[in-house]
Amino acid sequence: QVQLVESGGGLVQAGGSLRLSCAASERTGSRYFMGWFRQAPGKEREFVSAINWRSGTTNYADSVKGRFTISRDNAKNTVYLQMNSLKPEDTAVYYCAADPSFVLRVTGRLWDYWGQGTQVTVSS
Predict the structure, then answer these.
(1) pLDDT on residue 1
(2) Gap between the Cα atoms of 78 and 5, Å rounded
(3) Looking at the predicted structure, is the pLDDT value of residue 114 above 60?
(4) In this structure, what are the phi and psi dihedrals at residue 122, rounded to the nearest 5 degrees?
(5) How far is the C-alpha of 84 from the C-alpha of 75, rounded, in Å?
(6) For all residues of the chain together, what is the average pLDDT?
(7) Which phi and psi (to 5°) does residue 94 adopt?
(8) Which of 75, 81, 90 is nearest to 124 (CA)?
(9) What residues have CB less than 8 Å from 74, skipping those under 6 apart?
(10) In which band, very low, low, confident or very high, does the pLDDT at 27 lie, cut at 50, 70 and 90?
């Protein structure tokens, strides 16, 4: 029903920046969240950031606060993740996701729609 297409992953040096994009084929509803999760090798999938599409309210994991910024473009039905001051520990596969929920849920398995994932590698 909802297709998410990601782009923008790549290889950067520590301290560099990268911008991820996620275009949705259609909106999930009048109230929902879009966000990003990541999974590093040997680690569990973890919540990174989310935005309430209607209100614009944002949430961030403590590990990325002050460095990452999530935003949206209504005309393009696209969500972005601007990643600055990247660290090697940010290396992971980043997944765009959408959740038609009334409240923010940070447990990935509860989200309904997922992108294909894009690799972000930060060299030291």
Answers:
(1) 74
(2) 9
(3) yes
(4) -115, 115
(5) 25
(6) 93
(7) -100, 130
(8) 90
(9) none
(10) low
Q: Which long-range contacts (CB under 8 A, 24 or more apart) does 69-76 make?
A: 70/35, 70/36, 72/34, 76/23
Backbone phi, then psi, for 57, in 5-degree steps?
Answer: -65, 135
25-to-2, 39, 49, 119, 121 alpha-carbon distances in Å = 6, 24, 20, 21, 27
If pLDDT is split at 50, 70 and 90, which confidence band does 28 have?
A: low
Query: Which token pair is 47?
Result: 């919540």
Two tokens at 88?
């090697």
Q: What is d(CA 118, CA 11) in angstroms, rounded to the nearest whole number?
A: 11
Mean pLDDT of 12-21: 98
Residue 36 backbone phi and psi in degrees, to 5: -130, 140
Instruction: For residue 62, give every residue at least 6 positions away whose Cβ sits within 8 Å of its Cβ, in sequence order, or none.
Output: none
Q: Where do we find the tokens 């275009």?
A: 23
